[in-house]
Design brief:
The protein is mainly α. Helices cover 46% and strands 3% of the residues. It is built from 34 helices and 10 strands. The strands form 5 sheets. The chain has a two-stranded antiparallel sheet. A two-stranded antiparallel ribbon has the order 3-6. A two-stranded antiparallel sheet has the order 4-5. A hairpin with a 4-residue loop joins strand 1 and strand 2. Helix 14 packs antiparallel against helix 20. It starts with a helix and ends with a strand. The N terminus is likely disordered.
């Protein structure tokens, strides 16, 4: 914060300066701030945000006049490096990392100062959403992996693709021999690293109550019940290994497993039920993809098949209509991304959609930022722009169906995919009567007549050289309503019965290759490149693109090839990260040259090869890991081990982890005894039609939609308008691939646990549950402790709870009609919820 006060305020430009573009100067504070926001200090999510939302704008809009490549530095400003932005020219530093309103760069692109506008022409002014993205980037500290190196021009010839194999992640998979020793394979690999470092694993292992709570939350996202705790404790005392294995198998077989692990994948798939960006319209049918993912994890669908269905489900063979419907729904993975629905250039819109699909797929599955090569050869990894556009041709040869009608602020409309009719299929759209259909058609005809009359009146006025005043607002309203009617009529058959619909991808009407675009700009096409795959990966027998198809099916085969070096490595690393809080590769979304090195490289390859040998089974891999002694360790602190490995990278103990937002909310409902384990029908968003989330938020309806007792994975996920229960505890950014969520500690979290009506209701319900037990107060208090923490209280803890309870009763208002014992239990239960032990997993 002290750096902020050292920042030099720029003086108002002189007459000579006002005609210049934005120019910046070096300041001591800027240099210090730059050092504090270096690449090493940034997170994967922050780097992803820069690469997705900031770098492309700088390259396309700013580099032509402010880069070493262009040979221009108008106003002495270079923006092709992090240091260049901080150094600048005559008007002061462009950036004050962490302080958007102090940053001249934001002032210029916001057009807040008439003497300082970038781009200088009004017609080139950046969209509001782009400005918002820059404000957010600066607020997070302006993370910029470019450092002090300017963006040099790379050519394909300059990229030595043969050197790609030198990077550990691009080398062929090879199953290593087990290290010497005894025990399970995982434990032998971990022990080998610990021995080299002179560290010993934590002993004794976690007790039965700690381990059971860990297993329950990790596998199904719910706390164990008192009955489960008692049964497991007894079984554990008789035969520890048998009890744990039996419990793991039982948890893996619960429906809650898919709800827990499906949510992990939804983070990666940037699942949301609205478009986001500047036109945040709802996606009423996104829930089908959510349910598909949950069912896939419960069925232990092989991971290679799971990926193939999401990339090319419409092109895969099927045995019946139910399987076809499932595979089409899976392609919703490609349709869920945020889109610029107000982009008036159709070619630009399609290119942006394909870019978002490439970015999501390659980050999620390959841990590689291929989309960075859209405007230039990749700065860090061996990915030339030709390889990017080879992939782009595949997605540009496909059609994306996301289901948005035209209207104010959205010119890019799309239909939805109609699924095959399957008995028992859930359809959330209501049927309408024959009379209702006729009424809609009559309304559409009347509106079309009104629109025609408005256009004719404007035309006649122009012919008479009169200044017409067309009712633009009314015309937009009419067109919007016509679009809604047409969209509704397309969702029903001739009898008014609603069709089953889904977001997804389908083969395009035009299958073709595409051109490389210099700087990613449509008006600067280069050579044409054949559809294909990134060449930094070398396979023994790579598939060939079918010239009569988009290539998505061949892409799925390339990604899931057993000898692909990244697919299995990335996935087992994601599994490991969710079970230990840190991946073997800490940068779970980035296996490129700027990512972290694996802490246990041989273990990573062993697990990746084992995943493939086990038929790509997710459940088998999870079972293998949680049955290891490494997973069953306690979290006991050891000062000697801590000094040698303070981050616990070598796994000498189990690290404590904060629960995710969904697990915290579900745990409160479970303790209160009010959790509804049934899957709801669809989503509340399916009833929104074209009502914008902003209107719902203003009316309070959006938050009320979340006040239910279903599992949190079924809460509506509206981009930029998340429920408090999710938002306050670091829910995933729904527009980006998020392999690892943040785990912050903020005052807002404590205030939420104390003041939010949902938390208070859960505490009251738990108080009722305790009061219904026909036992003494100490037994009721102990039960509350057991329900919340998965362990009975210690004698000291129960004494403290009893003193609180008795003191509350002595201070209670005897004139109140409320039961003082219930009020005391209510307060006690809320204190249990608000504690750190409730929110953390040992």
């Amino acid at each position: 914060m002290v750096f902020h006060h050292l920042m030099l305020r720029p003086e108002r430009p002189t007459c000579d300066q006002r005609s210049r573009p934005l120019s910046l100067g070096l300041s001591l504070a800027g240099a210090l701030l730059f050092s504090s926001t270096s690449h090493a200090a940034t997170t994967d999510a922050q780097l992803a945000f820069f690469e997705t939302h900031i770098r492309p704008v700088l390259v396309e809009t700013c580099y032509p006049c402010h880069s070493a490549e262009s040979g221009k530095s108008k106003g002495d400003l270079l923006v092709d490096s992090a240091a260049g932005l901080l150094r600048g020219g005559g008007s002061g530093p462009a950036l004050s990392p962490g302080y958007p309103e102090e940053s001249l760069l934001l002032t210029a692109i916001s057009y807040h100062d008439s003497d300082m506008r970038m781009p200088p022409e009004e017609k080139d002014r950046l969209d509001d959403q782009v400005v918002t993205n820059f404000r957010r980037w600066i607020a997070m500290g302006a993370p910029d992996p470019r450092g002090d190196h300017t963006e040099a021009v790379h050519t394909t010839e300059a990229l030595d693709l043969t050197r790609a194999q030198e990077h550990w992640a691009y080398r062929p998979l090879h199953k290593p021999a087990l290290p010497e020793g005894s025990g399970q394979a995982i434990d032998r690999f971990v022990a080998s690293q610990l021995t080299k470092a002179g560290i010993f694993p934590s002993t004794p292992a976690a007790d039965s109550e700690t381990l059971l709570r860990r297993l329950n939350f990790d596998l199904v996202g719910l706390p164990p019940t008192p009955e489960e705790i008692a049964r497991f404790k007894e079984a554990h005392s008789n035969n520890e290994d048998f009890a744990i294995a039996n419990k793991v198998d039982e948890l893996l077989g619960r429906p809650g497993f898919g709800e827990r692990w499906g949510r992990h994948w939804l983070d990666i798939a940037r699942y949301a039920e609205s478009n986001g960006k500047e036109t945040n319209v709802p996606h009423p049918h996104a829930w089908r993809y959510r349910d598909y993912v949950i069912d896939a994890f419960n069925a232990d669908k092989p991971y290679d098949r799971f990926l193939s269905e999401q990339i090319a489900g419409d092109l895969l063979p099927y045995q019946n209509y139910a399987q076809q419907a499932e595979q089409i729904t899976a392609t919703g993975f490609l349709a869920l991304g945020a889109k610029s629905l107000n982009e008036r250039n159709p070619a630009q819109f399609l290119l942006d959609v394909a870019d978002e699909q490439i970015d999501t797929l390659t980050r999620a599955v390959l841990g590689t930022t291929v989309a960075c090569a859209r405007c230039h050869d990749h700065k860090f990894d061996p990915i030339p722009t030709e390889d990017y556009y080879a992939l782009a041709g595949i997605f540009l040869s496909s059609d994306t169906y996301y289901g948005t009608t035209s209207g104010p602020g959205r010119v890019r409309e799309s239909k939805l995919l109609r699924l095959p009719d399957v008995p028992g299929q859930l359809i959330t759209d209501p049927d309408i009567s024959i009379d209702g259909m006729a009424s809609l058609r009559e309304e559409r005809a009347a509106l079309e007549r009104q629109a025609g009359e408005l256009r004719q009146a404007a035309f006649a006025a122009r012919r008479m050289e009169e200044a017409p005043e067309p009712d633009i607002r009314n015309l937009l309203r009419i067109r919007t309503r016509i679009g809604q009617i047409e969209a509704k009529l397309e969702t029903i058959d001739d009898n008014g019965r609603a069709f089953p619909l889904a977001m997804g991808a389908w083969e395009g009407t035009e299958i073709s290759d595409t051109n490389v675009l210099r700087r990613g700009e449509l008006d600067q096409p280069g050579q044409r490149v054949a559809r294909g795959f990134p060449r930094f990966v070398s396979l023994q027998n790579p598939p060939r693109i079918n010239p009569n198809q988009s290539g998505r099916l061949d892409l799925a085969q390339w990604i899931t090839a057993p000898d692909h070096p990244l697919t299995a490595r990335v996935f087992v690393n994601r599994i490991w990260q969710h079970l230990f809080g840190r991946g073997i590769v800490a940068s779970v979304d980035n296996f490129g040259t700027t990512g972290e090195l694996p802490s246990h490289p041989e273990l990573l390859d062993y697990l990746a090869c084992t995943l493939i040998e086990d038929g790509w089974s997710t459940k088998s891999m999870i079972r293998r890991i949680v049955l290891s002694g490494t997973y069953r360790q306690a979290s006991h602190f050891d000062e000697q081990c801590f000094h040698k490995d303070p981050e616990n990278t070598l796994l000498w103990r189990m690290s404590k982890r904060r629960l995710e937002a969904e697990a915290i909310r579900d745990a409160m409902l479970a303790a209160a005894g009010t959790l509804n384990m049934d899957r709801p029908s669809g989503s509340p968003v399916s009833r929104l039609n074209n009502i914008t989330p902003a209107r719902l938020l203003a009316s309070g309806q959006l938050e009320s939609m979340t006040h239910n007792q279903n599992r949190s994975v079924y809460l509506p996920v509206i981009r930029d308008s998340l429920p408090d229960a999710l938002d306050v505890f670091d829910f995933a950014e729904a527009s980006l691939v998020t392999g690892a969520r943040d785990a912050t500690i903020t005052p807002g979290q404590a205030l939420y646990m104390l003041n939010n009506p949902f938390v208070q209701d859960c505490a009251a319900d738990l108080g009722h549950r305790l009061l219904e037990q026909e036992t003494g107060s100490r037994e009721q208090l102990a039960l509350g402790h057991l329900l919340c923490y998965g362990r009975p209280p210690t004698p000291e803890e129960i004494d403290i709870a009893a003193r609180f309870y008795d003191d509350f009763l002595t201070r209670a208002d005897t004139t109140s009609h409320l039961n003082p014992r219930l009020l005391a239990l209510h307060s006690y239960c809320q204190a249990l919820f608000a504690s750190a032990e409730f929110r953390y997993l040992d």
